[in-house]
Request: fold
Amino acid sequence: MNESALAARGINKRFGSLVVAADVDLTLPPGARYALIGPNGAGKTTLINLMTGMLRPDAGQILLGGEDVTALAPEDRVRRGLARTYQINSLFPHLTALESVILAVCERRRVAQAWWRRLIAYREEIDEAHQILGALMLDAVCHRPARELAYGQQRLLEIALALASRPKVLLLDEPAAGVPRDESNELFAAIAGLSRDITVLFIEHDMELVFRFAARVIVMVGGSILVEGTPAEIAADPQVRAVYLGKTPRGLRNG
Amino acid sequence: MTSATIAGPRDYLQTQMRWRWGEIAFWLATLLPFIVTPDYLLLASQVAIAALFVLSLDLILGFAGIVSLGHAAYFGIGAYTAGLISKWGWGEPLTGLLIAALAAGVFGYLTSFIVARFRHLPLIMITLGIGLLLQEAANSASWLTGGFDGLQGIRTWPIAGRFRFDLYGYTAYGYALAALFVIFLGARRLIHSPFGLALRGVRDNSQRMRAIGASTHSHIRTIYTIAAMIAGIAGAILAQSTETVSLEALGFQRSADVLVMLILGGTGRLYGGLLGAIVYMVARDQFSGLNPQYWYFWIGLLLIAVVVVLPNGLLGGLTLLTRRSKAAS
Reply:
């Protein structure tokens, strides 16, 4: 596995005396479906923030498609194919779902600075945005402002915004957080249906979803990676069980 | 996917940017002062200049969410530039406007690098600081600006060699109104463009903008420069039509006034600012006739009432009323 879509090399980050990332090494091969799990405060979201450039590491490198992007701003990493979603909805509340995704498409195509041409003239961008929403079953509500969408639809819009940047690597921070169980299955089915050209890493607490949709699982504890393996290996790992305070995590039995 | 379902989203967007009857009626009504109230044409020209200035603030505040307490800086630069060119012997108004717009735009572009990096309270303090700095600079450079006495000796040539700036304000209002309308058309085009959408994105959630690959700083720099140019044009029209410029052109009071007009009328809808300018300027004219010392009392009262009762300004209130009456009928 020399080739990687996204890799972290020796990432360290501390806030004062609190170590949130300690020598994190991580490699996502192209087309991967990886889950990132760990107890609260393990540094999972921080790791996503470090990889996407929202935070700068104290030491270490982030490689995107083999290229060192550690010094790049978040928006420049997005343009090179690294997209993310947020655990807590971070949408454009007053823009309709369609407008939001059109905006993301326009930014990717570098036409968002055009102020002399009417938006309506950008047919390809509008159609593409509409298709992305259609694929996530949001086309029926595409003219509603994001803040008026049902919570589950907002979670889908999070993903639609990320997809509009045509990512090579997609980092999903608890995509199903707060979504009822039957809907979260649908949501993960949509993620599973993504093109294999897209490398996916998702944070998820529900082990059933993790075992169903991830090919490999990375377990993080206290800012470092404890173990990585197939779902079966993780389920059988005594260290992982110990981390979860001796309890069997929800759904682990089913693994 | 069939072509019918694809046509859907575009149709909807199209209706969003279509000209409405109310808009056409509004612009026709701006011609009324020529016929109905010819005694008030000078006031009308002041209103049109204020409306243009508010429009420029709405572009940055209403659409991109950039709060400014120093917007008069660009108005003042436009006014002094137009005034100085005329004083130095070139009184042709249209080229004067262009040069003033350029000067205000250059200063806007330079300051936009600081402005783009901040939001909220720090941003208010920075724009306030820019305004104060410029005001004191203009005050101390009295050899250039005339200081407290104001800039004297401006002679504006007739427009196109024909329309002289008259005492009644026919030319002044026609000139200001024409500039307002043309620039309004440009602003309207801008807000319905991809860039207009991007600005609303910056206003709503600039963090997320970065996560979809947007350079929010460069968006802010662009709109801030455009707004500075428009403010400069408004200032230039004031200088050319009154043939004087005072320090008050770039004072804090003017920055505060324009913000009040925009909030009164309603932000982020272009017409809100225009309505706010009309209400504010006419109210000032009327109240200051009644009670010259205390007219701000009434403006203060009006401002509080509007913000408390109508969070989307007077225009937001009007829209609500028409919707209700439509629903009732």
Summary: Residues 43 and 223 of chain A are 5 Å apart (CA to CA). The mean pLDDT of chain A is 90. The longest strand of chain A covers residues 18-28.
